[in-house]
Amino acid sequence: MQQFKKKAKELRILDAKTAQNLSIFLGSFRLPYEEIRDIVLEVDEERLSESLIQNLIKNLPEQKELSALAELKGEYEELVESEQFGIVMSSVKLLRPRLNGILFKLTFEEQVNNIRPDIMNVTFACEEVKKSEGFSKLLELVLLVGNYMNAGSRNAQTFGFNISFLCKLRDTKSIGQNTTLLHFLADKCEENHEAILRFPEELDHVDSASKGMSLCLYVH
């Protein structure tokens, strides 16, 4: 009796590496494809895990590939397992944004706890800046000098300035280029307003707050 060898299934849409990674993922979790889809659709917190969602995001085919697989729904049984899984998951609308949202929900508390000390430092620093008499006097002095420098121009007698201007004090130089506005202000404070020079003592949390925020921005 003649025996016919079963023809091996070939990849139709996915590349070999993507298919292999998906196969490893599916082998690790050993869940029916429809169950994985339903967990994602229902955001089932009893069955959801950070590991499951992270691996889905990492190994999921691109949307164009999922869309192409969806067109092969009628040939489901002829496809390899990784592409069958792709067909099942392609029915979930906005799949990748949904997965990212679920992951954010799952890791939210941990992320908040990680940055809570930095948030507290920033909060304390803001209060210190608002309440610092020395810093307030320094701002008054900067405004006074700025109005003096702008006398006769359309910017004369300004009632305030953008706080970012403080970063430009060291860049504003005298006509002879031998001193900066920052040096001038420091000299005047030493001569007539020594109390202003002690304003950093009123800002205990500013340094740690600035480092913490820089780290948060770098990480995220």
UniProtKB/TrEMBL annotation:
Pfam family name, one: FH2
GO cellular component, as recorded: actin filament
Record-annotated FH2 domain positions: 1-220
PANTHER family per the UniProt record, alphabetical: PROTEIN DIAPHANOUS, PROTEIN DIAPHANOUS HOMOLOG 2
InterPro entries recorded: FH2_Formin, FH2_Formin_sf, Formin_Homology_Diaphanous_sf
Protein name: Protein diaphanous-like protein 2 Diaphanous-related formin-2
Superkingdom of origin: Eukaryota
GO biological process: actin filament polymerization
Lineage, broadest ranks: Eukaryota, Metazoa, Chordata, Craniata, Vertebrata
